[in-house]
# Entry
Amino acid sequence: MSKLTDVPKRILIGRALRSDRLGETLLPKRIALPVFASDPLSSVAYAPGEVLLVLSIAGASAYHFSPWIAAAVVVLMFTVVASYRQNVRAYPSGGGDYEVANTNLGPKAGLTVASALLVDYVLTVAVSISSGVENLGSAIPFVVENKVLCAIGIIVLLTLMNLRGVKESGKLFAIPTYVFVAGVFIMIAWGAYKGIVLGDTMQAPTADFEIKAEHEGLAGFALVFLLLRAFSSGCAALTGVEAISNGVPAFRKPKSKNAATTLAMMGLLAVTMFCGIIGLAMATDVKMAETPAHDLLRNGVPVGDDYVQNPVISQVAAAVFGDGTFFFVLLAAATALVLFLAANTAYNGFPLLGSILAQDRYLPRQLHTRGDRLAFSNGIVLLAGAAILLVWVYGADSTKLIQLYIVGVFVSFTLSQTGMVRHWNRHLKTETDPAARRHMIRSRAINTFGAFFTGLVLVVVLVTKFTHGAWVALLGMVIFYVTMSAIRRHYDGVSEEIAAAEERPDEYVRPSRVRSVVLVSKLHKPTLRALAYAKLLHSGELEALTVNVDAAETKALKEEWERRAINVPLKILDSPYREITRPVIDYVKNIRRDSPRDAVSVYIPEYVVGHWYEQLLHNQSALRLKGRLLFTPGVMVTSVPYQLRSSEAAKKRAKKRQEWNAPGSVRRGPVDRRPKEPSGKS
# Structure
């Protein structure tokens, strides 16, 4: 069975890597950019559309506010990038927002940030995959008809790719990410050239449509609220920025410098692409609506339920390149692919953060362990499972999922920047060098502005999105917070309970004697071996114990025991209800009750078989007894195995598995270590 599972495992995720090869998996900047920044880079494919969708509530006339909203998003992006460049230099260990908040604001703030980030990472996968499926569905009808199935299939595929390791998945993701970035820049440049230089009139496929406004003539507070809601939707472009600060350990040296440079590159690219798409959408007269079937009008008539609303980037590409042209198809394919791969930001952030939280005893220890490919495999699988659940519940609808989005990330932004302000305040108290102080004061000013701005945006997001689904994200944060707090209490309680005290407590006191009990069902070789082993350990008192569930068998056992003259007393327990486990447990507990300072050692003879189906036929009583005895203080349980013939076959199979090498698991050694071939000289 092990061999059967090893073959597909090695084919899917590759050969196992030694721990000392961890350094070989570190990322250069050219790979780190698509690995950690694919989410904010790809969000320009749907963030402009989210802005226009909200503005469409007031009709197409409200679209003229979109450049101002884009400008606000740009200012926020540069603020967050500048703030996080301070983070990666001050805290390069990989804890990111969690470490900053935990160190400077306390464990509760750190746990709040961790909860927010974990929720946001799960939503990143769900939103990115759902949006990618919708983009792909505009060209392939099968994908639209089976959105949930396709989304789950892609999540499974991404999970397998990430289980192969960060560096390998990064190489796979780099090409489509760079193709997408290049495609968007070509589209912006060509669109600007056609519009400004050539004077061409570019029209989106929806340019001739009209929008039926849900609320016409909005003014005053209602208009402000609408603009704030549109701004909060556009802030989806900032998701994933924090992943670089969490992933600093994955960079090549100098880690902090490379991470800061990658942050700056990501911010510049994302801002340019976001503004360019918003500008082209205005120039090509793109129309979007939250409920297109009723609110989009063609010749004064609603387009109907059969109409599929394409994303803004797809409509702009059709206007600039022409529908169906090579560059249109290339950008459409790259957009869909990069949206799928944007989830990779979460696949790198979630497991790494999970590992740090597990190390701090807030999550199960299994999340701290690296897998065969030196990736945090358990965290990757956990993230995939949570994202699949969300996709299934929300039907892979990005419009519904986007309402849950960005709440968590702005919670982490705000607390992280507040923590950095306290970090600089603490260091300024002891720093005397004027140059260093000037640098700290400048960094503190950046983080102070970042904390204020992101806190303001967090309030806006909560107010404008709470009833539209943001409460679900908050509920998820609360669930994570409570769960992690409970896990920490459990681990702390266990550590306190098992800690070895300096003085000599009762655990060090030697038992007055050991009462050994050998469980007997029949007198056969396994029983005789268990008796011989128990005698060898020189216990204070030794007895055999059997349960009378069949009078004839018990009588035969007693007669055989006397005939062989075994010098170990045989104790027979009556069981009127034919139970085996309970009489044994009660007997052992009575020994402990009568002699609390005695230790009881229970020996259980067990068969060792060679096939899994044989295991079902043996040792079930022994398994139940061991499970119950584990909860009885002062009782030690010893299994005495007896190998049957079939176990020899299992041993041979195990030996073959050791000698067998899975595909790709063997590589030739370095040239200088290979055996030299004969030179052929005489």
About this structure: Confidence is low (pLDDT under 50) at residues 1-7, 9-14, 16-24, 660-682. Residues 312 and 524 are 79 Å apart (CA to CA). The chain has 26 helices and eight strands. Strands lie at 210-211, 296-298, 301-302, 514-519, 541-548, 570-574, 599-608, 635-643.
